[in-house]
Amino acid sequence: MAITKWIFLSLTMMMTLTLTLTHDQQVPCFFIFGDSQSDNGNNNPLITNAKADYRPYGIDFPGAVPTGRFTNGKNMADFLAELLGFSDSIPPFVAAQGSAILKGLNYASGAAGILDSSGINLGDRFCMNRQLQNHMATIDQIAALLGNQTAADIYLRQCLNVVNIGGNDYINNYYQPPPSSSSSLTPDAFADELIATFSLQLRSLYDLGSRKVAVFGVGLIGCIPQEISLYPITNGSPCVDSINIAAGLFNDRLVSLINDLNTNLPNAQFTYINVTSIALGGPSLIGVKVLDAPCCEVQKAGAAAGQCLPDGAVCGNRDEYIFFDNFHPTQISYSMMASRAYRASLPTDTSPVDIERLVRQ
């Protein structure tokens, strides 16, 4: 069954990876674009129901404090920063200032989507277009810090950019009850709309000076507890297969888009992170037992349904759970996913290269 094949890098391989990493920072700066899988505090000041600035979120984060990360501890952006040799996590856009921005910024925002309208049901958020606008403002500041735009351009070409967005365009748009304006489209037509918009956004990122860009596909969102609770499961599958199939249509188009960008944009180095391959193939996650239920007590109704209940109960065996709430993985899941994105375990995990090779090119 698909959910029982949720596979990640083994603890043994993770230890080997840690031991062979250099302590030197592999890129001068790291910029993160995305949604709640990467958000580390950007949504805290916003008027939105997509917030994680309360316990039990952050229960396993250093200091056991909620920071706005939608998990029990560190998220995937944090682990990628560690693998890249950064001594600290990349700061959120809303909190960074001064020369700290030279190491990069995290623009990710819970409920954000490729489409401006995705996630509007939850309130304010920095959609992908707004994240790009924020990055433009950051580039102006970097140019001022380095003395001129030419110096900033040279600097930015060496940096890594990670884009992990698209799930909310399905969860909080296409499949959002009651039906959204997008739901009248066929899954193929909606995937076409998403890719057309995403193509413009990735090209804008290139035009802003980015050259090394890792783009994550949409994962098996039909297997998250919230979607399983909302939609009927057929043919004995443990997941909502129709949602996974629809997301797969987008991923297929994204692979073609990445190839097109690399072919037609001078010096472009885009790569695709195949989250589905990471989920379904390779060594197993040792010790994980609970695959389709949240670790925290979740809110049952309202706009924040599926997120952790404030000060609610939380499981003690968090490293045995895939999901922390009804939407978001646990820290252990994020660590394994980041490891496979950084250093592919299977040839299908990334295309054309993994992040480790991308930053060395």
From TrEMBL:
Compartments, as annotated in UniProt: Secreted
GO biological process: lipid catabolic process
N-terminal signal peptide: 1-22
Keywords: Hydrolase, Lipid degradation, Lipid metabolism, Secreted, Signal
GO terms assigned for molecular function: hydrolase activity
UniProt keyword annotation of Transmembrane present: no
Source organism, top-level taxon: Eukaryota
Any Pfam family the entry gives: Lipase_GDSL
Family the entry assigns: Belongs to the 'GDSL' lipolytic enzyme family.
PANTHER family, alphabetized: GDSL-LIKE LIPASE/ACYLHYDROLASE-RELATED (PTHR45650), SGNH HYDROLASE-TYPE ESTERASE DOMAIN-CONTAINING PROTEIN (PTHR45650:SF9)
Protein known as: GDSL esterase/lipase-like protein
